[in-house]
Amino acid sequence: MHVLLINGSPHREGCTYTALSQVAAQLEKRGVSSEIFWIGNQPIRGCIDCKSCWGKGRCVFDDDVVNQCIQKILTADGLVVGSPVYFSGIAGSLKCVLDRVFYDAKRLFSYKPAAAVVTCRRGGASATFDAINKYFTISSMPVVSSQYWNAVHGDKPEEVLADLEGMQTLRLMADNMAWLLKCREASGLEPYEREVRVKTNFYKPGT
Question: What are the distances in angstroms from CA 29 to CA 22, 34, 139, 203?
């Protein structure tokens, strides 16, 4: 069993990396391997809604980390997305990555357990946590919870480590991720056959 942890911070080994490292260490204790994938700090284009990716499971723009990220999620059994809080929201580059990763490929991620991890100095954690989870809940991905929302506070890695409740919350989330993955493996159950998706718009012709 293997979990992909996405570091969505422009800082390779900052607060978000510190938080994800806590998750990775706890997963290892439970016999689950993991990898922290840093999206980097180079410009990443946003989704332009060209729909050229539909049915392909990959973005047509191949000059950044997006398609690499899709492939890593596909080969992982579980997913953790980590982000710093910027203006009470997801870091800009990570938002661009997630929009393009999930635009068409989300149908390929169904039933992979997923969790969000956010780091902030003071405020905005719950809004960012909620925004990341929406990518999972539109993709039939079970959301892994903990004893509190998966957030840690601190302006520096050492301050994040000093957030004892936050660190414990992340460790429990990792335990729950490992437990869920092992339950799924032990059960051997396949998902129910899915209905063909129905899409409607909030528009009535003639009105």
Answer: 11, 11, 29, 52
Residue-wise pLDDT tens digits, 53-93: 999 999 999 999 999 999 999 999 999 999 999 999 999 99
Are 89 and 128 in contact by the 8 Å Cβ rule? The answer is yes
What are the structural domain ranges in the chain? 2-187
Q: pLDDT grade, residue 199 (50/70/90)?
A: confident
Token duo for residue 167: 């660190």
Topology, domain 2-187: Rossmann fold (3.40.50)
Give the number of other Cβ atoms within 10 Å of residue 57's Cβ: 16
Q: Could you tell me if 81 and 114 are in contact, meaning their C-beta atoms sit under 8 angstroms apart?
A: yes
Smallest CA-to-CA distance from 154 within 170, 172, 167 is with 167
